[in-house]
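Homework help board

Subject: predicted structure for assignment chain

Our instructor gave us this sequence and asked us to write out the predicted structure in token form, then describe one feature. I got the tokens but I'm not sure how to describe them. Can anyone check?
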Amino acid sequence: MPAVLAALGLAFLLRLVLEPVVFGYYPHPALAFLVIHEHVTTGRVRRTLTLGTAMLVLFPFHFSPADWWAAEVSLGAALAVPAIRELRQARLTPDPQGPGSPAPAG
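My token output:
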């Protein structure tokens, strides 16, 4: 379950970079999934809420485009690190039932 939350959070976070126009509400789904992911994995939400709030506060201010993107990408990268670790760990952890095992009944 944490790997699914991490993947969804990263997919929505990546949307900010891939969309031609970025609206202020675009970070919300990513932040929601990343907050839930942090709560499930660590029992806390302070880190994601702090970085996400900084990202949202900066969002409407367009000083210079290069500075704005640098700040947003830095905050987004800091938000993404735990989710990326989760996905790498899930990928490297072998399935206890082995590949090709039937799904458990029930």
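Reply (TA_rk): Your tokens look well-formed. For the description, you could write something like this. The chain is about 70% helix and 0% strand. That's the kind of observation they're looking for.
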